[in-house]
Fold this sequence. Notes:
- The protein is mainly beta.
- It contains five helices and 18 strands.
- The chain has helices at 9-30, 48-51, 74-77, 168-171, 265-269; strands spanning 33-45, 55-60, 65-73, 85-90, 98-105, 114-118, 121-141, 148-150, 156-158, 161-167, 176-182, 190-193, 195-199, 212-213, 221-224, 226-236, 258-263, 274-276.
- The strands form three sheets. Strands 1, 2, 3, 4, 5, 6, 7, 10, 11, 13 and 14 form an eleven-stranded mixed sheet that branches. Strands 8, 16, 17 and 18 form a four-stranded mixed sheet that branches. The chain has a three-stranded antiparallel sheet with strand order 9-15-12, with no helix packed on it.
- A hairpin with a 7-residue loop joins strand 4 (85-90) and strand 5 (98-105).
Amino acid sequence: MKDRWKNNLGIKIMAVLFAVVLWWTVINIDDPIGTKKFQVEVGVLNAEVVTNEGKSYQIVNNTKNVTVTVKARRKVLDKIKANNIVATADFRELQGASVPIRVKINGFEGDYEEAMANPRNLQIQTEVTETKTFPITVATIGDVREGYVLDKVNTVAKPKSIEISGPKSSLGRIARVVAKVDVSELSKDTTLSAEVIYYDSADNIIDKSLLSSNCDKNGVSVDVKLLSTKQLPVSFDTSKIVPGEGYVFSGITFEPQTVFVAGKTETISALAQLDIPADALQR
Length: 283
């Protein structure tokens, strides 16, 4: 009896093997292994490895964004989203101008077979960091309320200058720094938060991502000053006009008959007309 299990042993072994193959086939048909690609932005770790040496870095060759190919079973792939994938480049692994890109999938640890970034390395370019000081000019958009004009002389940025640090090549492109504010419908002096823009010599806007400034924390504001306006009639003093013999003075004509003036509200409100003195009409 104890040897009966040996009967048809070959058939029994084949049956077991067949069952294993069938199980494996069913698993792979129902939940096959596949791949899926995701677009992911690479995060930088320990950048101070470079910056502590008085240098700045720039990511080159379009390696900031990579394609991550994930290999896993279909049911796992269907659940993975791009925001689950973390691609990082740790500057402590910097070799020359390359940093290896490591990939992990949060929440799916051990559930996938492979996650590979393409390209596999972050490419960087380093430069010496410099600091320069630039004056800040003011640019306004929009129109103030009727009855007022912008006092351009006294409308100034706070602070009036800015210290910018960054790669020497980037600093060298900056031709001017502008604080832009919208003054639409303003009717009184006010202080506005400004958008700070760096321009090159061709008036192209410069990307500030590689640059830092002493105004990054508190920003830049603009003290906007306004002047009141008024249309004043013009009056001429004709008391010193003496006609020649045989003539009589009948009056004068002039253009324009009114003038537009701007100034402090208290000054403008006290004005009734613009008087032209008699001496101004003497030959």
